[in-house]
Amino acid sequence: MLKKSVTIKEIAKEAQVSIATVSMILNNKDKNISESTRNKVLKIAKEKNYIPNTMARSLITKQTGIIGLVIPDITNPFFPEIARGVEDKASEERYSIIICNTDDNLQKEDQYIQILTEKMVDGIVITHSADRYQEDSIRILDGCRVPIVLIDRDYSIPNVIGKVLVDNFKASYEAVNYLLNKGYRKIAYITGSLNTKTARDRLEGYKEALLTRGISYDERYIKVGEYKIQWGIDATKKLVSEDVFFDAIFCGNDLIAIGSMKALKKFRLKVPQDIGIMGFDDIYMASVIEPALTTMKQPNYEMGYYAAELLIEGIKKESLSINEKNTKKIILDSKLIVRESS
Amino acid sequence: MLKKSVTIKEIAKEAQVSIATVSMILNNKDKNISESTRNKVLKIAKEKNYIPNTMARSLITKQTGIIGLVIPDITNPFFPEIARGVEDKASEERYSIIICNTDDNLQKEDQYIQILTEKMVDGIVITHSADRYQEDSIRILDGCRVPIVLIDRDYSIPNVIGKVLVDNFKASYEAVNYLLNKGYRKIAYITGSLNTKTARDRLEGYKEALLTRGISYDERYIKVGEYKIQWGIDATKKLVSEDVFFDAIFCGNDLIAIGSMKALKKFRLKVPQDIGIMGFDDIYMASVIEPALTTMKQPNYEMGYYAAELLIEGIKKESLSINEKNTKKIILDSKLIVRESS
DNA sequence: CTGAAAGCGCTAACAG
DNA sequence: CTGTTAGCGCTTTCAG
């Protein structure tokens, strides 16, 4: 556990050159340095197992090569993929990420932003609860001196140089369209709470898809509840018991879809044999549980990846003092995953 | 996006004291500083929204307040809880964590360790693939100058100041014992590959529990395959078709348990009504899918939490140059979760 | 082609 | 009680 590590100073002494020369060589800024000294220095550095001290460098360059990732909770299955996407892009560009779990708690978020600022991160990727007032968001990101990219959020705040969103309306529209193309006409929709924009967009996409085909939808086909397996079961039971004829069910998320499929198995005789089921594959990998399920896969990994890309681009531009201040917006599509019944 | 932030120098000038005074006050090392100057400095610091520059401090103190977390893949449902545990403890102690996904790739691991060392992390918490030779592990952690805590691994390597493990043997033993206490006597065991110590320990626990009760087990009761839902289904079918009488099944992980329960539903008439099913709740939260399932919940969160605790303890001791070099080992128990049928 | 020198922002003795 | 003085390890003009 030796703390002692070689410095460029020691290398310089050993190589009998100045520390400036060593620094330049080690940073590949050796335009005008002779091959001989160059090799000599490099050899010594390797021998002594030189490890640059990032702190010292950062003190001068004002860049740490670290970006902060602020999310509600990595334990929520929605986030690991995002985190992975961010990390992958970051490490491609030789950035590290510091991860912060806020539990959707404003105070914690503020505190983390503060810490990240002290730690001199070069930028921040942040997602926060969809149920949050705009003023709060502003307060949170206020006073933070680094570029920010939002994931799954669409506020306009100074410092926010980018946003990555998914088009839920379109995804929902296409999912329903897929069912329609398959010949289904009576498509029920089971969703969780409608108090997030995501949920409302999905519902609108469903309605729009039907309207486009001139199919009027019936309010009785729409069941609003919770994003839980149990609600998938209950809502499906309701549909059956209410004697509403349906030949397909579209589920607002994968938990609901899992529940719905469970329930349908019990009603094999009461519903069409080839009933169409579709769900959003948000979090629980419904497909692992119900391999026959067709889903709209949310591009979580991609969201993280593009967010990091946007951020790093912004960081670099800024360090070049380019002052092009339009915030970029990337809207990603969900992907229809059709599986064969097993 | 102002990069300019106030320094203690400016505060010192404004308060008409020396920078040393300001530094001491801001670090609560103001044993002998008058209340008046103290308040004056604090007031100015607040007014100017002073943010300490961690880089500059770290350069001197050789402490960054950052811990590296090296894991195979945050996307693997085994790790988010661990990561959360590490982060929670870390943030309690005002440490941040940098997360690295190695994909069980030695080269990547080496590279990350290198980067973390450059970034001057104060310590590292690492988990790596169970299928790995000891020599490799040594090579990886070699040359790394900071304290290390291993999660779910038990190698003895310099720098490793702690290990956090779960007692799989005991967990398995207790799970089977639970079934025995319930009156089950013919307990089958479906496991994945036996080439990890975890899997072997679990199998041994199963055998030991039976032996303790003087129950001889039959090799036909043990099905070795993969940790997948499909294997749970197939193995269960096998058991039924082979006409081996069993009144309970113990599953090596939750995917297998999910598969097994699926299969059993199809054989309702061929197996005892009150068949006992038990599984390890490692990764997929089997309980969400099959709420009636009794499981041994792996203490992932706790592993992370204790690992961070051990590491931080070690970091502090080291900074105090205490040279007590025994590596601590924490062995955690899984927790039996009995659920009511829904 | 290379070296000297001036810091980055902060801490930590050591004087007064 | 507070100020002076050295650096931490590195980058970066600017002279030679």
From TrEMBL, chains A, B:
One of its GO terms (molecular function) is transcription cis-regulatory region binding. It comes from the Bacteria. SMART domains: HTH_LACI. The keyword Cell inner membrane does not apply. Keywords: DNA-binding, Repressor, Transcription, Transcription regulation. CDD domains: HTH_LacI (cd01392), PBP1_LacI_sugar_binding-like (cd06267). Pfam families: LacI, Peripla_BP_1. Residues 6-61 form the HTH lacI-type domain. PANTHER family: HTH-TYPE TRANSCRIPTIONAL REPRESSOR PURR-RELATED, LACI-RELATED TRANSCRIPTIONAL REPRESSOR. This is Transcriptional regulator, LacI family. It comes from Garciella nitratireducens DSM 15102.
